[in-house]
Design brief:
Helix content: 55-70%
Number of helices: 26
Oligomer: single chain
Shape: elongated
Largest sheet: 2 strands, antiparallel
């Protein structure tokens, strides 16, 4: 019996009359299994509902927290368990309907739309038993879902829903969850990716709504989660820092919530804090196997862990995260590049299983070409470099939000520069690194960035070798502005100043503090 049949049968057992839907609605297989309550994984969040059924309330609170954590299916299952515990609970059906809708990481699909619409109809059918606020929440959500859903015209319903939530937030100014839902509805009208201008009135309004919630409750998980995303691609990611300090523990077993502060820490250059956040997230991902956590985007958590550790010089953590990632998705490209980042060239050659996907393969090939060069096989390195250069000109592949050619071009330039360096042609090396930097600068905003290093680390090192210390200093400072507190550029600045007979106590202090978590000693900024 599928989930819908189970739900209908249970409702009939409770003597509830309802209009049967015209066609069967498909649900994920997980809906055939009973949903548990995960007390140790949940925080102290509570949204009181009108039901007197304790199980309905507990599942409702769990569903809300899981939706704040972007665990959509588990959230829907919890809300479904809530309305199963109390079939008269209108707001419980509201919860299920909300959870099937669009969220920041994905628009509502054609498979999810009928589920959302059906749950909403059940809420509307019971609206007379709801409190005034609950009835208002149900009515506001009713404009979001239509029977004949068309993804191409979804924005019409999204705009109507945002307008309705604005009115609701004004009517209930002290309800922080309604305000958070209003903020979410505004965010869904924005482009999800890319940089955000602070003078954009829509961005200003979104920030104002979320900061208004956090002024009243700095620990609110939903508002802080959204604020991190709303600020990470602006010039002021630190706006989310006060609440991010609490966010990771607000829903202890939800790995995406554990991980979320790292989006802010990466932008601020607090690399070790990002390592801690993603380590906690990876632990929750693993705890899911014993019912004490929820695995939400585990590959993303590991990728962020590998990236932050690479920028902060925590080599053991970066390499282990990349190895764990390869176990999860058979993608050995990041393992290979982590080893290059930290100069473990012999270990790269021990990785013999290439990944799939054109851009992942290019990262793997770059790493093996680089490692071959360092082991004395210049011909193999040159072959890899030439293949990367040709792929740069021909590829139409994309990697997440990036044109693949920009990633491949950056890698090709680094490898070409290293080959020229090995042959003593430093001018050619510097030119290749400059070209790599040009490609790198074409990359879009992303968390994490697709490479665990910047070509500027190589370009700065080439200028140092050429004794062009002013140029090296400029390159390293530019990289430091883009990746605050990263050990590679801090070390480069310190060394360039030293060769110029100068010093900067601010840089010296910053590097000393950054290296307190690093497990490497530095010879140069390439590896």
């Amino acid at each position: 019996m599928n989930r819908l049949s189970t739900a209908l049968a249970a409702l009939c057992c409770y003597g509830i009359s309802m209009n049967c839907i015209a066609q069967e609605i498909d649900y994920p297989d997980s809906f055939n299994e009973p949903m548990s309550l995960f007390d140790s994984a949940m925080g102290d969040f509570h949204f009181p509902i009108s039901s007197d059924n304790e199980m309905a309330q507990a599942y409702f609170d769990q569903g809300f927290q899981l939706m704040y954590s972007f665990a959509k299916d588990d959230s829907a299952r919890s809300f479904q368990a809530s309305n199963m515990a109390d079939p008269d609970c209108a707001i419980c059906y509201w919860g299920e309907a909300w959870s099937w809708g669009s969220y920041l990481n994905g628009a509502m699909t054609t498979a999810q739309a009928p589920r959302a619409y059906n749950a909403l109809q059940q809420a509307l059918a019971r609206i007379d038993s709801a409190t005034a606020k609950e009835a208002d929440m149900i009515q506001a959500l009713s404009v979001r879902y239509i029977e004949d859903f068309d993804p191409e015209t979804r924005r019409i319903q999204d705009q109507a829903y945002a307008d309705a939530m604005g009115e609701l937030a004004a009517k209930y100014p002290d309800d922080l969850d309604i305000a958070t839902l209003y903020g979410e509805s505004l965010f869904l009208l924005e482009e999800r990716r890319g940089y955000r201008a602070l003078d954009n009135p829509d961005v200003t309004r979104l920030h104002g709504v979320l900061l208004g919630v956090l002024e009243k409750d700095i620990r609110h998980p939903g508002a802080c989660h959204l604020l991190v995303h709303a600020t990470e691609s602006t010039p002021t990611p630190e706006l989310a820092a006060p609440c991010a300090r609490f966010l990771g523990n607000s829903i202890p077993g939800a790995s995406h919530i554990n991980h979320m502060p790292s989006h802010t820490w990466n932008e601020m250059g607090l690399w070790h804090d990002a390592v801690v956040a993603n380590t906690q997230a990876w632990h929750s991902d693993q705890k899911a196997a014993i019912g004490e956590g929820f695995a939400i985007y585990p590959t993303h958590n590991l990728t962020m862990l590998y990236y932050a550790a690479s920028m902060g010089g925590e080599s053991a953590t970066a390499v282990q995260a990349a190895k764990d990632l390869a176990k999860l998705n058979s993608n050995t490209s990041m393992h290979s590049m982590a080893l290059i980042r930290f100069g473990r060239f012999d270990e790269v050659l021990d990785i013999t299983e290439p990944p799939t996907g054109e851009i992942n393969i290019s990262m793997y090939d770059f790493s093996h070409g680089y490692a071959a060069l360092k082991s004395g096989d210049t011909d193999k390195a040159r072959d890899a470099m030439q293949s990367l250069k040709e792929l740069t000109e021909t590829t139409t592949a994309r990697f997440r939000f990036h044109a693949g050619k920009d990633i491949v071009g950056a890698l090709a330039g680094i490898l070409e520069g290293e080959i020229a360096w090995s042959e003593g042609n430093m001018e050619a090396a510097a030119e290749a690194f400059r070209l790599a930097t040009d490609y790198y600068d074409n990359l879009n905003y992303d968390e994490p960035e697709p490479l665990p290093f910047s070509p500027r680390h190589w370009l700065g090192a080439a200028y140092m070798e050429l004794q062009a210390y002013d140029s090296a200093l400029e390159v390293y400072r530019q990289d430091l502005s883009e990746h605050p507190h990263n050990i590679w550029s801090l070390f480069g600045i310190q060394q360039a100043l030293k060769m110029m007979g100068e010093s900067d106590p601010v840089i010296d202090k910053d590097l000393f503090e950054a290296l307190s978590y690093a497990d490497i000693w530095m010879l140069n900024t390439k590896y």
